[in-house]
Amino acid sequence: MLHNKKISVVVPAYNEARLISRVIETMPDYVDFIIVVDDCSSDGTETIVKEKCLSDTRVVLISHEFNQGVGGAIATGYKWARDNKIDVTAVMAGDAQMDPADLINIIMPVVENKADYTKGNRLYHGEAWEIIPKHRYLGNAFLSLLTKISSGYWHIADSQCGYTAINLFALETIDPDKIYKRYGMPNDLLIRLNEFNMRVRDVSVKPVYNVGEVSGIKISRVIFTIPVILLKGFFRRLFFKYVILDFHPLVFFYLLGLFLTPFGFFFGLYLLGYRLFLGPVQETSALFAAFLSISGLQSLFFAMWFDMDYNKTLR
Questions:
Q1: Are residues 19 and 211 in contact, defined by beta-carbon separation less than 8 angstroms?
Q2: Would you tell me how many other CB atoms lie within 10 Å of the CB of residue 214?
Q3: How far apart are CA 144 and CA 128, in angstroms?
Q4: Which of 61, 130, 208, 239 is 20 to 30 Å apart from 42, CA to CA?
Q5: Which one, of 106, 90, 104, lies nearest residue 166 by Cα?
Q6: Is 88 helix (H, G, I), strand (E, B) or coil?
Q7: Is 288 exposed, middle or buried, given 0-12, 13-18 or 19+ CB atoms closer than 10 A?
Q8: How far apart are CA 8 and CA 282, in angstroms?
Q9: Buried/exposed 215-237: b ≥16 CB within 10 Å, e otherwise
Q10: Domain locations in the chain as residue ranges
Q11: Distance between CA 46 and CA 77 in Å, rounded?
C-alpha cells in the first residue's frame, strides 16, 4: 500500500516469455497486486507466470482463451481492479520497456487525488529523439497532435505511451469493455475520460528500448486505423459532452469549420483548374472561394480555442 491506498499494476502480456520474469521481479514493494493478463500466448508466458505466482503472492494470473489485443488485456485487468476495489491501478507492459523506477511518479498524482488518470511522456527527455526509433517518434508526434484535438486534452503529448495510472472512480465511471481493444486503446481511453471531465496529467518517464523486446506493431496499419478511431471518438465526444451533458456553441463552430474549409479548398482547386485549362474565371468566384476557406479555418480555430478553454481545469 501507499498512503493507505491499495495499488495494483496490470501487465498485459502476449508472447513475453523472455522478459515477463524481469517485469515481475523488479516490481516495487509498495505494489499490492501484479495482475498479469496472458493474451493467449503461445511461447510459455503463462507457465512462467504460474511459477511466479508460487514465489510472489502478489501475482494474479488471468488467461484469455483467445487473443484480444493489448487493449483487451488491459480492459480485463481494469475490470479485476474495479471489482476488487483497488484504489489506484497502473499499467506496465510485459516487455520490460517501462522503467519500474518511474512507477512512483506515475501513481503519486492519482494517489494524492491530484489527477484521475496519469500517463507517461517519454518526450520530456532530451535524448528521446536519439533513443526512440525515428519512424515511431514521428508517428507518435503525428498521432499525439490528432489525439489533442480528438480528446480535448490539449496539454498532453506522447499519446501512445502505455505507462499509465487510473483511480477507482474513473474505472467505475467508464466501461472498460467499450474501450478499443488494440493498439489505439490509449487514444480511445483519453477521449472517454474527457467525456466525463476526468483530470489527466502527463508525467515524465524514461524511454526504454533495445532490452530484448519484440514489437508487434505494424506502422502501416495503425497509421490509418488510429485516425479513424480518433475521428469517431471526436464526434462522439462532441455530441455527448457538448450536446447531451452540457450544451456549448463550439459544436456549431466545429461543424461550420469542417464544412466550409474543405468546400472552399476544393472550390478553389476547381477554379484554378478551370483557369488553367478552360479560360478566365470571375474575380468574385475566386474571392468567394477564399472567403469560404478563411471563414472555415477561423471557425475551426475558434472551436479549438473554446474546447481548450473549457477543458483547462482538467490538467
A1: yes
A2: 9
A3: 15
A4: 208
A5: 90
A6: strand
A7: middle
A8: 67
A9: eeeeeeebeeebbebbeebbeeb
A10: 7-242, 248-314
A11: 15
**Which residues are CB-neighbours of 312 under 8 A, at least 6 positions away?**
none
Of 10, 73, 70, 14, nearest to 45 by C-alpha is: 14
Say which residue the cell 481494469 belongs to. 78
pLDDT per residue as tens, the chain (315 positions): 899 999 999 999 999 999 999 999 999 999 999 999 999 999 999 999 999 999 999 999 999 999 999 999 999 999 999 999 999 999 999 998 899 999 999 999 999 999 999 999 988 766 766 777 777 788 888 899 999 999 999 999 999 899 999 999 999 999 999 999 988 999 999 999 999 999 999 999 988 765 444 555 556 566 778 999 999 999 999 999 999 998 999 999 999 999 999 999 999 999 999 999 998 888 999 999 999 999 999 999 999 999 999 999 998
Residue 263 burial (10 A CB sphere; 0-12, 13-18, 19+): middle
Sheet holding 33-38, edge to edge: 59-63, 33-38, 7-13, 88-91, 164-167, 117-121, 200-204
Q: Which three cell numbers stand for residue 141?
A: 508526434
Residue type, 163: Y
From the list 176, 185, 186, 5, the residue with the least C-alpha distance to 78 is 176
- Multiple choice CATH, 7-242, 3.40.50.1240, 1.25.40.20, 3.90.550.10, 3.90.180.10: 3.90.550.10
Q: Which residues pair with 36 in a beta bridge?
A: 11, 61
Label the pairing between strands 59-63 and 7-13.
unpaired
Cell of 289: 472561394
Radius of gyration of the chain (CA): 23
Q: If we measure between CA atoms, which residue out of 73, 195, 114 comes closest to residue 81?
A: 73
